[in-house]
Amino acid sequence: MRILIVGGGMGGTILANNLARRLKNEVRQGKAQITMLSASEQHMYQPGLLYVCVGRMMPDELYREQASLLEPEIEFHVDPVEEFHLDQNSVKTKSGKTYSYDSLVIATGSRPAAETVPGLAENSVNCYTEENALEMLRQVRDFKGGKVGIVVGVPHKCPMIPLEVTFVLHDYFKEKGIADKTEFHYTYPIGRLHSLEPVAKWAQGEFAKMGIKTKTLFNMKEVDGKGKVVHSEESETVDYDLLVSVPPHKGMEVIEKNKLGAGGFIPTDRLSLKMEGRDNVYIIGDTTNLPISKAGSTAHFEAEAVAENLAALIKLGEPVREYDGKVFCFIEAGRDRATYAMFDYNHPPAPKAPNKAVHWFKMAYNQLYWASARGLL
Questions:
Q1: Model confidence over 356-374: pLDDT tens digits?
Q2: Which of these CATH numbers, 3.40.50.2020, 3.50.50.60, 3.20.20.120, 3.40.50.11290, describes 2-109+252-326?
Q3: pLDDT number for residue 371
Q4: CB 283 within 8 A of CB 106
Q5: Which of 107, 225, 248, 361 is most deeply buried (CB count within 10 A of its CB)?
């Protein structure tokens, strides 16, 4: 069986390594082939960008060579896919090469699309790319006090980021000695502070302790940079001196260009993770259109499920498990406090009070991530 993985992020990398270990003998015997096509030779630890925004991590700490993270049984090429020919079981890459497959896994991820809200890209900062994180660091470092607006678009990568960036900035300005001169205004698009109701209730108590003002049912319409005000679809406004955004996200352009899914998100079966209407195409991570968290742990658990099933197809002729919707998210609640949310399709999260122990566990995970990407955790 020829297994082709398109995308070298968290999901694709864990999947490839998991498969390589499960199918080591089959690869050596020529019964299986694992190929990965990536758009970059570098692999970035994206959650670290939050810490770059406040000077707690340097950009070069976020990167490793993608090839160094892969098992030797994996054939790796930096050659992004430009065309998907699903009826022919093949893809065509930027170099002009055609790669055929028996099973295809698409793990191309998502991207911030601040440009979809007029004025947002020009007048806000965010932590979704290295360039944006460094600009945010410059602006928060120069901030002398005033109104901080937190505005959120949907869908977005990492469901806890709106809360985390608020907590982290609150403590940053507290350490800087300007907390008494700073007023936070947090907005969220639906009628509570987070998409997950238990997390929203927990956040409400935490925000109340910190004096953070909130406004729900606030869907961004446009940003007036001159007037320093954000207008919502509901005719509400938020004034700001510093505007921090969680931009709406889209899937990768190649998915839209190939008409595989609206907004770059591919229709996916929630249990098998197969592309709807395709028996040999699997979708994992941010690329799915599933209404679950676009988080690294989601990609991780999905990758494990798909790897187990692909290996079982080769060894047994049939799949052996379904994805249960499992997600695990740390929630950074300030300089030295954190909690977490763990949930699946049938069990909602129940965040506990933040503490130092969970914070330091998260700090440790920043280093353990590379072992996780290799599928060792």
A1: 999 888 888 878 888 888 8
A2: 3.50.50.60
A3: 86
A4: yes
A5: 107
